[in-house]
Specification:
alpha/beta
Length: about 375
């Protein structure tokens, strides 16, 4: 009998992979399921982007292997976008690496910098992939707690009291998923100082900057950030291109080159047409964000009404594609979400899948139409 690698003993199947099978089974059995669980945008990508990919298919190099570093035009477009939106200068030659989605970047970065036994600071609550990838490469997760008491910002006093001698990487994610809390430049400045003090690579995962957010910021805006920080970003949420798998990594040339060593052994370049579409997306005017956010604003107000039906409390200043809501004291997250699923045919995410600090919270996705949200409200 051929056994799976021992590294798989450290991880479980991704929650949504398993739970969505159950949800699909309920739907197949005739249940009118409303899925408010995942952040897969239901809105269409920009028309110009679809035209760009279509028009590119006849180009002479469209169907050949592509550069591991992406088209020069794509790196230039990313550089221009970061300069325009964040006032961040990045050299397109060696400080920008296009990715097939930022999720693969989490694995590439971890493989590039972590040795077996290294420790990794991971937010709790936070994106579960940080933990699973850390375990898959043989490193050890070291969770740092976030709470509403500190507006979901890192508690640096608690961080300094931990043994940091073996910590190599710290994952941060602002605007924060699942809570929707923005970082501040003050937080980013503290993170850069903390990383330099302890020689810890700080990585900000930043795919939600332009969703219901009037003040997008990047950790790379902080003076000296490139010395110790990297930033991941993505077109998935911003331009409704989740299935296209277009991400990017920015940082100093030395760090980027180490990640490229891994990436160049993992794929054979991003499809040409997708790169052409990504270039077009990155050149869109701010009207795109304004129009998209009008839709999300309407949906969010309705989601707040839905949360009210469950006596759940939420922060009206939060950003991103989700509403993070605190359920009444004494109730368990999974009990609440399973009750709503089995009694009302509505799938909502329990906060506990994001860590122990998610207990007592539930998360709603904005990736459903206003009509569907109204139907969910009527069911409750």
């Amino acid at each position: 009998m051929i056994k799976a690698a021992k590294r798989l003993d450290t991880v479980q199947e991704y929650y949504f992979s398993k739970k969505l099978r159950e949800v699909r089974g309920l739907a197949a059995a005739g249940k009118p399921i409303i899925n408010m669980g995942i952040g897969s945008p239901d809105l269409q990508p920009p028309a110009k982007v679809l035209e760009a990919i279509s028009n590119s298919l006849g180009d002479a190099t469209a169907h050949k292997y592509q550069s591991y570093q992406g088209l020069p035009e794509l790196r230039n477009a990313i550089a221009t976008f970061y300069k325009s939106k964040f006032s961040v200068d990045a050299n397109p030659e060696n400080e920008i690496l296009p990715l097939m989605g930022s999720k693969e970047g989490i694995m590439h970065i971890s493989m590039a910098f972590l040795n077996e036994g290294d420790k990794v600071l991971i937010p709790n609550p936070g994106y579960p992939t940080y933990t699973s990838v850390t375990k898959l490469v043989g490193a050890e997760p070291l969770f740092y707690n976030l709470s509403d008491a500190t507006n979901w910002q890192p508690n640096f006093e608690e961080l300094e009291n931990q043994d940091l001698s073996e910590v190599k990487i710290m994952w941060v994610n602002y605007p924060h998923m699942p809570t929707g809390t923005d970082a501040t430049l003050a937080t980013f400045e503290k993170l850069i100082a903390f990383g330099k003090k302890h020689q810890i690579l700080i990585i900000n995962d930043n795919p939600y900057s332009f969703i219901l957010n009037d003040n997008p910021i990047s950790i790379l805006q902080v003076e000296g950030a490139k010395d110790i920080a990297l930033e991941l970003n993505s077109l998935s949420k911003t331009f409704n291109m989740a299935g296209w798998r277009v991400g990017m990594l920015l940082g100093n040339a030395t760090f980027i080159n180490e990640v490229l060593k891994v990436k160049s052994n993992m794929d054979s370049g991003m499809f040409y047409g997708i790169q052409k579409g990504a270039i077009e997306a990155l050149q869109l005017s701010d009207d795109w964000f304004l129009e998209q956010n009008k839709v999300y604003e309407e949906r969010r107000k309705l989601i707040w009404q839905l949360a009210d039906k469950l006596d759940a409390k939420y922060d009206t200043n939060s950003t991103g594609l989700f509403v993070w809501a605190k359920i009444p004291e004494g109730k368990k997250s999974t009990a609440v979400t399973d009750k709503v699923l089995y009694e009302n045919d509505i799938f909502i995410t329990p906060g506990t899948i994001f860590g122990s600090q998610g207990e007592g919270y539930i998360r709603f996705s904005l990736c459903v139409t206003s009509e569907i949200i109204k139907e969910a409200i009527s069911r409750l």
